[in-house]
Amino acid sequence: MPKTVKAAEGAAKTVTRTSVKKQPTGGLKVERVFTTAGTHPYDEVAWESRDVVMTNWRDGSINFEQRGVEFPSFWSQNATQIVTSKYFRGAVGTPQRETGLKQVIDRVVHQYHVAGEKNGYFASAEDAQIFADELTWLLLHQYFSFNSPVWFNVGTAAPQQVSACFILSVDDTMESILDWYKEEGMIFKGGSGAGVNLSKIRSSAELLSSGGNASGPISFMRGADASAGTIKSGGATRRAAKMVILDVDHPDIEAFIDTKAREEDKIRALRDAGFDVDLGGEDMFSVQYQNANNSVRVTDEFMAAVENGTDYALKGRQTGEEISRRDAREVFRKMAKAAWECADPGIQYDDVINDWHTNPNTDRIYASNPCSEYMSLNDSSCNLASLNLMKFLGEDGSFDVERFVKTVEFVITAMEISISFADFPTEKIAETTRNFRQLGIGYSNLGALLMASGHAYDSEDGRALAAGITALMTGVSYRRSAEIAGVVGPYAGYELNAEPHQRVMAKHAAAANEVRTFGDVDATILDAAKAEWAAGNEIGAVNGWRNAQASVLAPTGTISFMMDCDTTGIEPDLALVKFKKMVGGGSMEIVNQTVPRALANLGYDQEQSGAIVDYIAENGHIVGAPHLAEEHYSVFDCAMGERSISPMGHVNMMAAVQPFLSGSTSKTVNLPESATVEDIEEVYFQGWKLGIKALAVYRDNCKVGQPLSAKKKEVEQAVEAAVEQAIATVEAHVPVRRKLPKKRPSQTISFSVGGAEGYMTSSSYPDDGLGEVFLKMSKQGSTLAGVMDALSVSISIALQYGVPLEKYVEKFTNMRFEPAGMTDDPDIRMASSLVDYIFRRLALDYLPYDERAAIGILTTAERTAEVNGEDPAKVSQPEVDLEALRGSAPVDEAPADDDGVAEAVAERVQIESKKSRLDILNSAQARSADAPLCMNCGTKMRPAGSCYACEGCGATSGCS
Is 922 exposed, middle or buried (0-12, 13-18, 19+ CB in 10 A)? Predict the structure, then answer.
C-alpha cells in the first residue's frame, strides 16, 4: 500500500468513535455575511444592456442571437455570451425567454429557498430568506457556481435534474446490459455523463449456459459506443461523456487495453487512403470506442507484482477462480504503450479508492464518473459546485479564511437541499442518491491563485497552499454536514456505515497534521482546517453526517468561464497570454491579469512590472524579460510552452490534495511529444506510490484524427519538399524557367486562420496561369515571416519552372499544424493549417471547376448548388477576374531579373499585420494542440481536467 495512505491510516487507528443517535431538533440559524439587511444584492451593482450574437463556423450564418440582455457591468462579454446562450430558458423571441442574469439566478435560488424552508432546514422563515439573499449575492459576484444541470433544469418545467455525474452498474445478464444502454442514453439526454465497470460481464474465455463461448465485455462496448455517438450528434446541450472501466484481473484485460490504440491504427490507414477522418468527418463513424474514456482498475497486489517483477492471476467472472496467469510488468507496459499511442487507458487504484470509502458495509466502489473525480456506489449520482478561489485572495497575497469558510457553509447547504427536490433518470439512482446524498463541492482558479500570490505550481510551497485550501474546504463541508444531520438527520445509509465513515473522517484529519507549511498564509489556512476537522468530527460523532461524500475536484469547464476564471479546476495556467472578448464584438489580446498581481507580490515596482508585462505581450513568455529574476521564472510556468511544468509536477499536485477529498481530481498529466513509454510507466507507478486514486495521461500529438501542434519544422519540411520537387523537375525535363514580366496581373487578399492574420499576393502570366505567390505574416525578421518568405520563393520558382499548381494543391491541402481552425473566408470556413488554407484559396482562384471537383475543393455557392440538386458547374466562376487584371497589364516579355521574386517578398507587401498570439496560446496549452474543435461554434476547445471545454460558447465534453 502507498506510504502516504499507510501514514494516514496509522494515525486514524488511534481514534475510536461510536454512533450516537440524536433526534433532529430545530433548524439552521443563518447570519448575514455578504449582504446588508434591507438592501437587495442586485441594488448594489451597476447593470448594463448587451447584445449576444454567435455565428456558425461552417458558413458564417448567425446561429444564436439575443439582444438587450441585462448583466452586471463587471461580468465579461465571454461570461455573458455563455450564460445567455446556454443557461437562459424559454424559446428565443418569445415572452417566456429569460432576458437577464437576474431572472436566471432568481429561478434557481427561489427553488432552493422554497425547498429548504419546506423540508425543515432553517430555524425560521427569516433564516431561509437570509440564506436566499446570501446565495444570490455569491452567484451574482461569481464566488461560486452550481454545475450546468442546475442552470439547465432547476426552476423550469423540465425534470429537476441537478447532478452532472453518474455511476451505473451492469451485471452478467442480457437484461442488465440492455438496461445499461438505456440508462446511459437517458443520462446523456439530460446533459450529464456516466461511468460503469464492466468487470462482472464474463470474459470471452468463459462459457455460456448454452455451452458456447461468451462474447465478452468488449463486444458490448461497441453497442454502447454507437449509442453514445448517436446521442452526441443530436445533443442540444453537450456531447455524451462516458467512462468504461475493467479490472486488471479480468481475462479480457489485454484486449481492453488495446481497443482504442488499434482504432488509432485504423484511423491512420483510413487517412492515408484518403478518407475523411478529421473531427466530425463522415468516415469517422466507422471508428469505434471513441465516445468513452477507458480506465484499468488496478489493485495493490497487481502493482506490487509490477514492482517485484512477478506474475498475477486472471480470474473467471462467475466463479472467481484462476483462469490463467500473466506477467504483471508485461500487462503494465501494454497499458503505458497504449496510453502513449492514444491517451487511453487511464488508471484507477482500487485499494486506495476503497480505503477512503465511507460506505464499504453497503458495497465497494467499482467505478467513477467520466472524468474520474466522482467515486462512489453503483447507481448513484453527484451534484457539483465549484468555488472561485481568486475571490478570496487579498491584494497583499493573503487568503480570506473567514469568508471562505462562510461561503463553503452556504454552498454545501444549498447542495444538500437540492437532493430533497431533485429528479433522477432512474429509480435505482434516485434511491441510492437519496439514501447516501453524495455532494461534490470543489474549486476553480487554483493555478491563477498560486501564480498571483507568487507561488510556483510545481513547488513545495505551492502544493502546501493547495493542500491547506482543500483540507479547509472539505473540513468545513463535513462539519456543516454534521450540523445539518443534527437538524434533519444523517443520511439513511449512515447507521450501517457509522464506523467506517468515522474512520475515514479521522484519516482526513490525520492527513492534515502531515502537511508542512512554508509561510504565514498557508499556516493560517492549515490551522483553520485542523480546527474544522476536529470540530466536525466531534459533532459527527454525535449527529452522524448528512452526506456520505462532500468534495471532489471537477473539470469546471463551462462554469469556470461563467465565473471569469483564468484557470479551470486544479489545472495550472495554460498560457500567459489570452484573448478577451469585447462587448461590441471581436476580441483583444491581453496578458493574464494574474501576472501583474504576481509581480507585485514578488516585490517588483510598477515600472518594472510594466516592462515585464510588455515583454510577455510581445513574446508570449517570460524568458529573458527585463528586470525579472531567474529564481522567479518558475512562478510563471504554464502547462506547456517555453517553460512547461514537468509531468511529475502535475502528479505531485494531485497527491498533495488527494488526502483531503472525498472523491478524486479530474486531471490529465500532460507529457511532451518526445515522452517515452517508460515515462508513462513512471507516471502510473508514482501515482500509486503517492496514494492518488486515479489519473490519465496525454502525450502531445498522440491523436491522429485531430489537428496537430504548431511546429516550425513541418512548414520547413514543406518548403524543402517543394524545392526538391522543383529540382527534380529540372533534372528530369531540363525545362526553361519562364519568368514573369515586370508588370503582371495580380491580386492581394487578407486572411485569418485560427486568429493568425496574413496577406497573400498571387500573380499570373498575362496570357494564363499562376506564376508567383507572396505570403506576408508577422513582423519582418521573425521566424514565421522568414519561413513564409522561403515558402513564397520556393513555390514561385517552381511554378515558373512548370510545376503544376494542382500538384501543390494535392500535396499541401489537409496538412495539419497550428495555427488552424476558423478562417474569415466564406468559401473556406475551416483550415487545418496555414498552407492548407493558402492552397485551397489558390485552387479556388486559379483551377477550373472540373479539377477542383475531383479533389473536393468547391466554393460555398457550388456546394449549395450540389445540395439543391443543381449543376454546380453552372454557378462556378473564377474568384479572380483574370481578364480584368490582364487588361491593366500589357503583355511584356521582358523577363524579371533573377532576384525579382526575392525583391518582391520584401517590397510587394509592406503591411505590418497584428502579430497573432493564438498559435502561442494554443501551443502553450498542454493538450490543446490536439484539442477538438467545438461542434457548436468551431472554436478550439480548452483542456478542463480530463475533459475539454469551449471558451467561445461554453460547450463541454464532460462534467461541470
Answer: buried
Contact present, 909 and 926 (Cβ < 8 Å): no
Q: Which of 292, 438, 298 is nearest to 357 (CA)?
A: 438
Contact yes or no for 469/389 (Cβ under 8 A): yes
Sign of CA dihedral 348, 352, 357, 362: positive
Q: Where are the alpha helices (DSSP H) in 141-216?
A: 148-153, 174-189
| SS3 at position 692 | coil
Indicate the average pLDDT of the chain: 83
Rounded CA-CA distance 935/634 in Å is 36
CA distance 206 to 203: 5
Residue 703, pLDDT score: 66
Task: For the beta carbon of residue 440, count every other beta carbon within 10 angstroms.
Answer: 31
**Residues tagged active-site:** 369, 371, 373
Please name which of 736, 758, 759, 737 lies closest in space to residue 746, comparing C-alpha atoms. Answer: 759
| The pLDDT value given to residue 908 | 39
Q: Report which of 715, 695, 718, 698 is spatially closest to residue 706, judged by C-alpha positions.
A: 698
In this predicted structure, the answer to whether residue 711 has a pLDDT above a threshold of 60 is no
Is residue 8 over pLDDT 50?
no
Instruction: Render 583-598 in DSSP notation, one character per residue.
Output: TTSSEEEEE-THHHHH
Reduce the DSSP state of residue 355 to 3 states and report it: helix
CA distance linking residue 544 with residue 537, whole number of Å: 9
Can you tell me the distance from the alpha carbon of 833 to that of 831, in angstroms, rounded to the nearest whole number?
5
Q: Which residues pair with 349 in a beta bridge?
A: 298
Pairing of strands 770-777, 311-315: unpaired
Q: Using a pLDDT cut of 90, give the percent of the chain over it.
A: 54
The torsion angles phi and psi of 456, rounded to 5 degrees, stand at -70, 140
C-alpha cell at 247: 479490472
Task: Let me know: does 641 contact 673? Beta carbons within 8 Å.
Answer: no
Hey, what's the cell of 839?
Answer: 492552397
Q: Using omega within 30 degrees of 0 as the cis cutoff, is the peptide bond preceding 72 cis? A: no
Q: How confident is the model over 134-153, as a mean pLDDT? A: 96
- All residues at 6 or more sequence positions from 438 whose CB lies less than 8 Å from its CB, including other chains: 374, 376, 380, 381, 382, 547, 548, 549
What would the mean pLDDT of 296-325 be, rounded to a whole number?
96
Lookup result for grid cell 491523436: 703
Contact 156, 130 (CB under 8 A): no
Per-residue model confidence (pLDDT) at position 345: 94
Residue 216 phi, psi dihedral angles, 5° rounding: 90, 165
| pLDDT, tens digit (0-9, with 9 covering 90-100), for 417-457 | 999 999 999 999 999 999 999 999 999 999 999 999 999 99
- Cα–Cα distances in Å, from 960 out to 38, 140, 312, 386? 34, 18, 38, 9
pLDDT-based confidence at residue 922 (cuts at 50, 70, 90): very low
List C-alpha distances in Å: 785 to 156, 388, 813, 818, 915: 54, 41, 21, 15, 10
Q: Does the pLDDT value for residue 107 go beyond 50?
A: yes
Would you say 345 and 257 are in contact if contact means Cβ atoms under 8 Å apart? yes
> Among all chains, which residue has been given the C-alpha cell 499585420?
913
CA distance 640 to 704: 20
Count of residues for the chain?
Answer: 960
The answer to whether residue 224 scores a pLDDT higher than 90 is no
The 3-class secondary structure across 212-281, one letter per residue, is: CECCCHHHHHHHHHHHHHHHHHHCCCCCCEEEEEEECCCCCHHHHHHHHHHHHHHHHHHHHCCCCCCCCC
Of 4-18, 138-152, 597-611, the one with minimum mean pLDDT is: 4-18
